[in-house]
Amino acid sequence: MTGVGEKQKRPPAECRVQEVATGSTENFFADQKPKRNALRNGIICMAVGVGLGMFFLTVALTVADEAWGGIGISLIPFCIGLGFLLIHFLQEKSQNDTENQ
Fold first, then answer.
1. Minimal CA–CA distance to 42: which of 34, 31, 50?
2. CB–CB of 49/79 below 8 Å?
3. Is residue 39 part of a domain?
4. What is the C-alpha separation between 60 and 35, in angstroms, rounded?
5. Is-above-0.85 flag for pTM?
6. How many independent structural domains does the chain possess?
């Protein structure tokens, strides 16, 4: 069991190379879990996009009319976040489909 901040110990690269060389790769990917960071990354990117949009909206309404372009810039991280969420839910759906078959 690993503590906070500790990484799981992996076998040395020589062991993996030896497994590949001998053809015994059935456990090669067994210890590697798929990363499920797409949901977290999507939420963070969308929050950054919304935060930037609110900031530029406030600046545009109070100080300078030229800041309206910043709202368009805030759409970039927002759309990237939407893409991450789409990836997350598509991967989750495909995993559920393969488990049901």
1. 50
2. yes
3. yes
4. 39
5. no
6. 1
41 inside domain: yes
SS3 at position 70: helix
Token output for 6: 């500790």
In a 10 Å sphere around its CB, with 0-12 CB exposed, 13-18 middle and 19+ buried, how is residue 97 labelled?
A: exposed
On whether residue 26 sits in a domain, the answer given is no
The phi-psi region of residue 3 (left if phi > 0; otherwise alpha if psi is between -120 and 50; otherwise beta) is beta
* Range list of H helices, the chain: 13-22, 38-62, 68-100
pLDDT, tens digit, for every residue of 30-67?
554 455 688 888 999 999 999 999 999 898 888 877 77
For residue 87, the enclosing domain spans 34-100
Identify whether 27 is part of a domain: no
Residue bearing the bigger pLDDT, 22 or 59: 59
CA dihedral of residues 50, 47, 78, 48 (deg, nearest 10): 80
